[in-house]
Amino acid sequence: MELLKQKIREVGVILSDEVIKLDAILNHAVDPALTTAMGREFARLYRDENVTKILTIESSGIPIAFAAAQELNVPLVFARRKKSLNTETETYCERVPSFTKGIVTDIMVSKEFLDEKDRVVLIDDFIANGDAARGLIRIIRRSGAVLLGLGIAVEKSFQAGGRTIRESGVRVESLVKIASLAGGEIRFE
Amino acid sequence: MELLKQKIREVGVILSDEVIKLDAILNHAVDPALTTAMGREFARLYRDENVTKILTIESSGIPIAFAAAQELNVPLVFARRKKSLNTETETYCERVPSFTKGIVTDIMVSKEFLDEKDRVVLIDDFIANGDAARGLIRIIRRSGAVLLGLGIAVEKSFQAGGRTIRESGVRVESLVKIASLAGGEIRFE
Fold first, then answer.
1. Which of A70, B131, B147, B181 could be B32's S-S partner, Cβ–Cβ 3.0 to 4.6 Å?
2. Is B128 annotated as contributing to ligand binding?
3. Matching InterPro entries, A to Z (chains A, B) (predicted)?
């Protein structure tokens, strides 16, 4: 997606050979026109798959996942990162490490919002090592829903997440793949 | 907003005289048509105010805030609840208690996304005691931005948040006001 590449070149802040900060478009501030275009692109990729639900995880995946859900006119479910007072006991829960946060978190989806009648696209902002995605995939499998595939805004293809999930037979669509951040330079695939 | 009242009657789960769970439309699953309508209503209310930015806080406020930002075609900024590796040091940070989570959290907005040229509408899913909203208002004031007002999906008007913020001179627009949950019954204002 050329528009997203341009924006990443404009606003991306390279923090190390492994980390690029995209707070200006994904992780803190959001451009509605760009986000709507990204949602539309995910919708186009999965349009013929009879999607019944979009799944993401709080927080940065929500705007793009919502834009895709709008376009496909299906509900969005966002996995929660831990229990609050308002949370059901009837949940699918998985423990995953977070690459950017450097901590382990529990992610959960209430059983009432995901079941064997669902055909799900999993949308997220980044894929690096793929730990969060794998946790969400386990939740989808446990629910009995069909996983149609992933929609990722930015795949860091120098990390193994996208590749290993593809190798496991899951469709992974990334709008942009970053092959390298070495030397403070963004190289797209 | 009549449509939202209907949905609350349909899906709301009353957990106590003070807590109603709206996971099915706000806090875990999202209906894109309803959310888009809510965003459109916030946009209508603030249309003539030359809004430059929508501010919310992760996570449940993001879909409705995004829908409002789409409609007004201005950027959305979502305050973060704590620091991750990817977070700037140059931030406005405030400590607030959370009514539903029963804990204290630090909320932060990067200085690069909010400044004295901004005219801001603060959007959130719920207002109860108003602690999160007051924290965000302090951040807006510190940035020098103009606070145009609040847009709240569900005001629990039997708790003091909305009232005290209005009394401080801030415009507060709530799409729905719940006057009472006593006896397991939702009474709208």
1. A70
2. yes
3. PRTase-like, PRTase_dom, Pur/Pyrimidine_PRTase, Xanthine_PRibTrfase
Q: Do B85 and A101 touch (CB under 8 A)?
A: yes
- CA-nearest of B43, B4, B48 to B153 is B4
Cα separation, B141 vs B118, whole angstroms:
11
The number of distinct structural domains making up chain A is 1
- Alpha carbon of B83: minimum distance to chain A alpha carbons (Å): 8
Cβ-defined contact of B27 to A85 (cutoff 8 Å): no
Residues of B in contact with A78 (CB under 8 A): 28-30, 59
> B50-80 pLDDT, tens per residue?
999 999 999 999 999 999 999 999 999 999 9
| Other beta carbons less than 10 A from residue A90's beta carbon | 8
Say what the ipTM of the complex is: 0.95
Q: What is the pLDDT of residues B12-45, one digit of tens each?
A: 999 999 999 999 999 999 999 999 999 999 999 9
**Stretch 164-183 of chain A: residues touching chain B, C-beta under 8 Å:** none
Please give the Cα distance from B19 to B12 (Å, whole number). Answer: 10
- Structural domain boundaries, residue B177: 2-188
- Where residue B36 sits, what CATH number does that domain have? 3.40.50.2020
* pLDDT (0 to 100) of residue A104: 86
What's the gap in Å between the CA of B45 and the closest CA on chain A?
A: 19
Contact status, residue B115 vs residue B132, Cβ threshold 8 Å: no
Chain B residue at shortest CA distance from A67:
B32
Q: What is the pLDDT of residues A54-82, one digit of tens each?
A: 999 999 999 999 999 999 999 999 999 87
Find the closest chain A residue to B109 by CA distance. A28
Confidence of residue A100 (pLDDT cuts 50, 70, 90): low
Q: Is A29 on the interface with B (CB under 8 A)?
A: yes
